[in-house]
Design a protein that fits this description.
The protein is of the alpha/beta class and 371 residues long. It contains nine helices and 17 strands. The structure holds S-adenosylmethionine.
């Protein structure tokens, strides 16, 4: 990928290396962190070099009468106006420049006190655009934004302080081909979604390969989000219990389960720390009153925590389960958690998935089995 803003825009910090060199660097970094626990060959899953991001957020820069997209400067000093962004997927690329021209042509209705634009798009050419304002949105705004929906063939939402205006939907519908099947996922504007759909598919398929090796018993998942891993992995287990802290994501997960006609998953809104308390029997939750926790016999657990990694209670809980799939967006906290987990388990497989090309961020995963 080449971009005229490389070296100035803070969004892509690894612009000076070729894509192959970046990937090598990430592989070496994860390999070095995992060496104390595992000396095998990392599997490496690359990304398309351009048009890979299905989520993007731009600030709006106002100068004279005009608006432009802007990003933070690479040296964290102010903003750079953006004239191209080749990392966004085609369904964003096709709309974002037309949108900007429409906003600029709209006098004040769409433009006044607009401070940010967020795009959430799919590989099936759906796109949800959220316009964020420092002013209250009225009917005139809704009417003009509704016209924009038709002109750009997208969904539009408006947000300002304590106000959310949904003109059609607040989600997009993604369809991903995973392990020979097509899965449908509703992805909500305010819920977590994996940013790179091509790499997401490779990551889920890697987890499916590990699940197939177990192929029996019940499956526990924490940090399940909208059911990204849960739905495809559910085929390889008897019963599934999947938990997540976000109400919005659990709502999406329940809908996704129905849409895909899957009947063996129970989703519960629980922080990982609460899930541990519930499964250890130290605290009762009214949210779990219809779930017989004692009926589960977990052979496998999947965790996919935020950058901070796992808390001590969750580590202790999953140390009792025979197989662990640990997906991580921070190899440093993964390595920290493996110090404890490898007292009870051995690492059988490890992989790097390049969710975030042209940045230092790296996603990795390990598959562990009880000693
Ligand atoms: C890296 S995302 C992974 C989501 C999902 N596995 C996916 O692939 O889309 C982490 C998820 O953990 C959730 N989360 C954050 N803190 C949590 C906590 N303490 N307990 C449970 N879930 C949490 C977030 O809402 C988010 O959905």
């Amino acid at each position: 990928m080449d971009c005229k803003h490389f070296g100035i825009c803070g969004s892509c910090g690894l612009y000076m290396l070729s894509y192959a060199e970046q990937l090598k660097q990430k592989e070496e970094k994860v390999s070095a962190l995992l060496t104390p626990f595992w000396q095998g060959k990392l599997e490496v899953f690359d990304s398309p070099d351009a048009h890979y991001r299905a989520r993007a957020e731009f600030r709006i820069w106002h100068e004279d009468e005009r608006c432009d997209y802007a990003m933070g400067n690479i040296e964290k000093k102010g903003a750079v106006t953006i004239k191209e962004c080749p990392k966004v997927i085609e369904s964003i690329e096709e709309r974002m420049w037309k949108l900007l021209e429409k906003i600029n042509a709209s006098q004040d209705v769409l433009k006044q006190r607009l401070f940010s634009v967020e795009f959430l798009a799919t590989t099936t050419d759906e796109c949800l655009v959220t316009l964020l304002y420092h002013r209250k949105l009225d009917n005139t705004w809704s009417q003009e934004a509704k016209l924009l929906e038709t002109e750009l063939n997208c969904k539009i939402m408006g947000r300002s302080r304590k106000q959310k205006v949904i003109l059609s939907d607040e989600f997009v519908t993604e369809k991903l081909d995973i392990d020979g099947k097509t899965f449908t996922y509703l992805q909500y504007e305010s819920g977590f979604t994996q940013p790179n759909p091509a790499v997401n598919v490779k990551m889920i398929e890697w987890a499916v390969v590990q699940a197939k090796k177990v192929g029996h018993g019940d499956f526990l998942e924490s940090y399940c989000g909208l059911g990204n891993f849960t739905l495809p992995l559910s085929h390889y287990f008897d019963k599934v219990l999947a938990t997540e802290i976000s109400k919005r994501s659990i709502h999406a997960a329940l809908q996704n389960c129905k849409l895909n006609d899957i009947n063996n998953i129970t989703f519960a809104r629980l922080a990982s720390e609460e899930m541990t308390e519930a499964l250890n029997g130290v605290r009762e939750f009214s949210r779990l009153k219809d779930i017989d926790l004692k009926s589960y016999d977990f052979s496998t657990v999947l965790v996919d925590p935020p950058r901070a990694g796992l808390d001590e209670g969750t580590i202790a809980l999953i140390s009792n389960i025979d197989h662990i799939i640990y997906i991580s967006c921070n190899p440093e906290t993964l390595a920290r958690d493996l110090e404890t987990l490898t007292k009870t388990h051995v690492v059988l497989e490890a992989a790097v998935y390049d969710q975030f090309p042209h940045t230092e961020h790296v996603e990795s995963g390990v598959f562990l089995q009880k000693r």
